[in-house]
Amino acid sequence: MPIDRLSVVSFWIFVHHWFANGMTVYEPSFISDWITAKAQDDHKVEFYVPFTDIENATETQVPVKVIVEVKVEDGDDYYIFNAFGSSPRDDDATEKYGGVIYFYNASGVLILLPERFDNDPLGMKNDDGLAVYLGTDTTWYQPLSLNGGTIQTRYADASVRVKMWRQNDMPPDYDTDFQYHLRSKNDISKNNLTTYFEIPIGMTSYPDMVVVQAKPTATFAEFPGVISEGNGIPGCFTCGREAGGLTFAYNASHVRVWVKKNYPITSAADGWGLKTYLNNERLVSYEVNIRVLAWNFDSDTNKCRWTMNSTIYANQQSTEVPRMIFSSPIEDMNSVLVLVSVSMLLI
Predict the structure, then answer these.
(1) How far, in Å, CA of 210 to CA of 214, rounded?
(2) Considering only CA atoms, which of 80, 47, 60, 91 is closest in space to residue 267?
(3) pLDDT tens-place string over residues 102-145
(4) β-pairing, 46-50 with 108-112?
(5) Can you tell me the distance from the alpha carbon of 208 to that of 216, in angstroms, rounded to the nearest whole number?
C-alpha cells in the first residue's frame, strides 16, 4: 500500500465526524421498531428481525449496509451505539465486557446480546456481559452527558433497532462482490492461510463510507447466506478462543483487511444469545469470502447532504473527552446515518 496516514503508527488521532441526512435515494430501505433487550435475560438476549421491504428476497438482494442501533437511557439523556458485526470476545475472561452483535442475510437480521454459557466444566464462564460497557475511569476517559455530568458506564438494559439499505437505495461507488478469500485456520496445512490482504479500490478521494462484508464458505442451516460486517478497529482479540471478527482500514486507493490467525472470522459462540443455542460452533467460520463496498457521498448532493462536518484532535496525553455537539437538534433520527472516521496523523 502506498505510504499514507494508514501506514503510520502514532498516538495522535484525527477524528472526522459526518452527519448524513438521507434524501430520496439514500433513505433506508427498511427501519424496524425499537425492541426491548437486556443482557443475561434469556427472554431478551436474542431477536430475529425480518426485512419487510421485499418478500422472499434472494441472495442477489443482499443489503449493502445494515446497522443495528443500541440505545441506552441515562436519566433524561439517551445514547445510541452501533452493534458489532461479530463476537468481539467470549465470556471466558473474568472481567466486565459489553456489546450487541448481529448477522444478516437477504431476508433479515439476527441480533444477540451477552448471555452466560452454562455448559462450563471448568467453572470459568461468568455473567459479566452487558449490553453496553464503557470501561473504567482508570483506562478510559468517561464521556460527559449533555448536562455536564459523567454518564453511566454499565448498561444491561437497552433498545435495539435495525436500519438496512439495499443496493438500489444506496448504490455504492465501488463494489468488489465476494471475490476475495480469507482463511484464519487450517488443521491440515498451517501454511495454507490468508489472514491479511489489500484490495485496490481506485477512488479519487478518501471514501466517505466503506463496508466490508464476510460470507462464510460453510453453510449454516440455522441462518442460510449469513453475512458478518467487519469492524473498523480491533476488539479484544485476547479475550477467549471463540472471539471472532474482521478488521479493516482504508485510504483513497486501498482497503486493508486483517483477521487473527487461528481465531474465528465469524462467531456467535460461547456467551451470546439464547441458552438453547449456546455452544462453541454457532455461526463459527474460519474461512470466508470478502466483499468491499465504498461510497463517496459528496459526489452527489442530490442524494445525500452533510448537516455537520467537523474535526477534532486527540492524543494519548489528552485530558478532555472528545465531544461533538450538533449545532441544532436533529428532527428526524430515523433517516440519519452517523459516520465517524479515525485517521492517524503524520508527525
Answers:
(1) 13
(2) 91
(3) 999 999 999 999 887 654 545 545 567 888 887 766 666 666 66
(4) antiparallel
(5) 27
Q: Are 211 and 293 in contact (CB under 8 A)?
A: yes
List pLDDT tens digits, range 10-44.
334 445 545 555 444 578 899 999 999 998 888 89
Cell, residue 127: 455473567
**Residue pointed to by grid coordinates 452493534:** 83
For the record, the C-alpha cell of 60 comes out as 442477489
The residue type at 121: P
Q: How far apart are CA 329 and CA 109, in angstroms?
A: 30
Query: Do 195 and 184 touch, CB atoms closer than 8 A?
Result: yes
Cβ atoms of 96 and 130 closer than 8 Å: yes
Q: Quote the DSSP letter at residue 334.
A: T
Which residue in this structure is represented by grid cell 459523567? Answer: 150
End-to-end CA distance of the chain: 19
CA-to-CA separations, 295 to 134, 140, 167, 172, 341, in angstroms, rounded: 30, 32, 12, 5, 13
Residue bearing cell 472470522: 265
CB 83, CB 160: distance < 8 Å: yes
